[in-house]
Amino acid sequence: MINLIRSFIQVIIGITILVSIQSCEEVPTDIGSGFISPDDTLNVKVLDSETDTIPLLATQYKKAFSNFISPFILIGKTAGVESSGLLRFNNLPSTYQGVTVNSAKLFLKYVNYYYTDSAGTLDFNIYKLTQDFSFATVTRDSINSGSYNPAPVGNYSGTPVDSVTVSINLDNNMVKDWLEFAADPNYHEPNYGMIFIPNSASTTIKGFGSTNANTIETPYVEIALTLNGQNDTITLNTTESNFITDGDISSLPSDRITLQSGVSIQNFFRFNLSKLPSNVIVNEARLEMYLDTTSSYYFSVSEKRIVANLITDSTTLEDTLSIINSEIQGNKYILQFNPFVQFWANGTFENKGIALSTLSKRLNIDKFVFYSPTYSDVSKRPRLRITYTIRN
């Protein structure tokens, strides 16, 4: 599981770096103190939120993303967070028209990811989707109670531990419909897949292997059936999967900055840079933030870096361009975002702030909590420091 998560993170980093490099080609080549003429050193200035009046504002918000690339199907609910899994079996054999399904079992491999109680109870029902969603793009905003048949077609209650494979009996008629639809695309019950919705008895969220997991961890169904008087057993293992997660941000403490994957809790971070002259050379712009480890939740193997995106619309919070934080020193995160501040100074973009999020936001539900600009201990508040040179 660890290697797989790292592989997915490398893909995300590659895409992020590619977008950032392509987008930052307009950054002036004179960024950086190494390019400053010795004659200009008297023009080097510093803006520091610890010594200068630079208002910093941080606001929580949610942004829906598709978690299609995740190696997990996350199911459960706890501590104000609820996650539902999506699963569809594709490329079914087309030779079972008129089949009788005698039994059907779904097998899910628990892959030792949990939030936040490894020994908590997982309790969920499975429902048949009644709408055709693109699993690659579906988000929590896409699905509501009208998206599935309210009659359960399977259920599970237990405490999966230690990489166990759980088996769940599926409704025989639903699985028959899958096979009939594979044989006849005009069949009256299309195969749109299933949704796994946690019940109130759930006290944790557990991760099962998804379509993107290692082969031995992907879901499969074993079907015992009869066709033309002959008994047979077949296995379905070609799938699409996703998960949709939501959480309440109204109860988040105002003196913290919460960034959570899956739920996609992000932060709209703004800087009043009225003291920064226009058209300067930005040598360095860094934002330091301090992690509240007690309130955070992640694993030792988790991807701990965060991402900053340039906000282009402060109303819709649309963003563009991305930078991954460059350094983590214990509980101190250091985000170098020279290009963004240079863009603002040049007038290439208007300063509308940045969006902070986790690098793993499409993979899991890890949570990273930082102290905000309103935290009582001033030494733990975010610090903005900009070193710049006034052009001659």
Fill in the keyword field for this structure.
eleven-stranded antiparallel β-sheet, mainly beta, 392 residues
What is the topological layout?
Elements lengths: L1 H22 L20 E5 L7 E7 L9 E7 L2 E9 L10 E16 L6 E7 L25 E5 L6 E5 L2 H12 L10 E5 L6 E5 L10 E8 L2 E7 L2 E9 L8 E5 L4 E7 L9 E10 L15 E8 L4 E7 L2 E3 L2 E5 L1 H9 L7 E5 L8 E5 L11 E7 L3
Antiparallel strand pairs: 1-23, 2-15, 3-4, 3-10, 4-9, 4-13, 5-8, 5-10, 5-11, 6-7, 6-9, 11-12, 14-22, 15-21, 16-20, 16-23, 17-18, 17-21, 19-20
- Helical residue percent band: 10-25%
Number of domains: 2
Give me the number of helical elements: 3
Number of strands: 23
Shape: elongated
- Rg (C-alpha, Å): 25 Å
User: How would you characterize the largest beta sheet?
Assistant: 11 strands, antiparallel
- Sheet-strand content, in percent, reads 35-45%
Low-confidence stretches: 15-36
Mean pLDDT: 91
Helix/strand/pairing category: mainly beta
Q: How do the helices and strands follow one another from N- to C-terminus?
A: HEEEEEEEEHEEEEEEEEEEEEHEEE
C-alpha end-to-end distance: 55 Å
Description:
By secondary structure, the chain is mainly beta. It has three helices and 23 strands. Strands 3, 4, 5, 6, 7, 8, 9, 10, 11, 12 and 13 form an eleven-stranded antiparallel β-sheet that branches. A hairpin with a 2-residue loop joins strand 19 (327-329) and strand 20. The model is unreliable at 15-36 (pLDDT under 50).
Write a short abstract of this structure.
The protein is mainly beta and 392 residues long.
